[in-house]
Structures are given as structure tokens and as C-alpha cells.
Automatic annotation (TrEMBL):
InterPro entries: Nitroreductase, Nitroreductase-like. This is Nitroreductase family protein. Belongs to the nitroreductase family. Pfam families: Nitroreductase (PF00881). Keywords: Oxidoreductase.
Length: 204
């Protein structure tokens, strides 16, 4: 079994995919099912997913995504959406934790009260920033879990989000953040370098 360090080192952004290679919905759901263990602000889990695996729909999506080839040739594209009204999850999240035995009634009520006094009253911009941050965490987990299964990915922020929401009937509550192409590489990814750690690190 690969170590986490190996998975991180092997994951690269792949843009050339084998169009004949298919990943089952069951495997995609396994990846997403593990990915949603990602942390989130107050555990409100402000993410939703749309999986595109129909070839005709992917062709439409490609037009919205600046004609990026990998949208059509990958096995599937996972759209990660941010829930700007994550406060609607408050009761469900904490009551579920109580029912699972992870917190007692008093702590549940305290956390529900605290979250309800904060999130619903925050501006949409603040809630959007929180949701975007959290969807970044779950997106990275998706890509690492895919690599652990020997699949390849590339995150794409370059797409028309307004057209996406309109074409795929995304409720106003949700905002598309990133598209993640998922499949098997048909050509090696370009190698990249990193700015040395000593230039981006300081201690205080």
C-alpha cells in the first residue's frame, strides 16, 4: 500500500486522458465518501457535488469550461459546489453527532445555539469565503484519494460559473468552485518545480 507521502509526490495535474478508460460510479462514490471526511468550519460541511459522466453532457460542459479537452476525455468530471447557506445544516449536523454518541445533549444544544448566533447573521461574502475555503479542503482530498487508487486528476477553475449554474440548474444557494477531471492519464503530466521552502517559511 502506498504511503501518503508517495501519493502526494505522485499526484500531478494531468490534462491528457485515455477517453476509453471508464471509472464506475461506485468507485467515484467511494472516493467522494472518503473525501467528505475533510474538516470544515463548525463541521457544517458546505459542499455539494455534481458528477458528469455522460459523454454528451461532458461535451456541453467542455464549451462552458473554455474548451478544455480533459473535460470531454476524462472518465468523469466532479464539480465541487460551495454552500453559501451552510447554516441550514446546523441542526442536522449536531443532532446527528448527538445520536451517534459523539456529544451529549448539553454540548449539542450549546453548539447549535453558538452556530445559530453566528452563521445566519454573517454577510454572504463572509459565508462564501468560508465555504470556498472548506471546498478547497475537500477538493484536495478528492484528488489524493483518486491518486491512491492510481487515477489521475486536474482541478479547473477556468470555467464560466454563471453559465454553469444556469445550464445545470444550480440553486442560488450554491456556487460552483472547481471542476475536477478524473480518469487515467494518456500522457505524462508536465513536471513542475516549487519555490524552495526556505523562501516561503518563517518562524516567530
Amino acid at each position: 500500500m502506498k504511503s501518503l507521502s508517495d501519493v502526494i509526490k505522485e499526484r500531478h495535474s494531468v490534462r491528457k486522458y485515455d477517453p476509453n478508460f471508464k471509472i464506475s460510479r461506485q468507485e467515484i462514490e467511494e472516493i467522494l465518501g472518503e473525501a467528505i471526511s475533510a474538516p470544515s468550519s463548525s463541521n457544517l460541511q458546505p459542499w455539494r457535488f455534481i458528477v458528469f459522466d455522460d459523454q454528451n453532457t461532458k461535451k456541453e460542459l467542455r464549451e462552458i469550461a473554455n474548451n478544455q479537452e480533459q473535460v470531454e476525455t476524462s472518465s468523469a468530471v466532479i464539480a465541487v459546489l460551495a454552500d453559501k447557506e451552510m447554516y441550514r445544516n446546523i441542526e442536522r449536523v449536531y443532532r446527528s453527532a448527538n445520536e451517534a454518541g459523539y456529544m451529549d445533549e448539553a454540548n449539542m444544544e450549546r453548539l447549535i445555539k453558538s452556530a445559530n448566533s453566528t452563521y445566519p447573521h454573517a454577510s454572504e461574502e463572509i459565508r462564501k469565503n468560508i465555504a470556498f475555503f472548506d471546498t478547497g479542503l475537500v477538493s484536495m482530498q478528492i484528488m489524493l484519494l483518486a491518486k491512491a487508487k492510481d487515477y489521475d486528476t486536474v482541478p479547473m477553475g477556468g470555467f464560466d460559473k454563471a453559465k454553469f449554474s444556469q445550464r445545470f440548474a444550480v440553486p442560488e444557494r450554491y456556487e460552483p468552485v472547481v471542476l475536477i477531471a478524473l480518469g487515467k492519464a494518456a500522457a505524462p503530466a508536465f513536471k513542475t518545480t516549487r519555490i524552495p521552502l526556505k523562501e516561503v517559511l518563517e518562524y516567530k
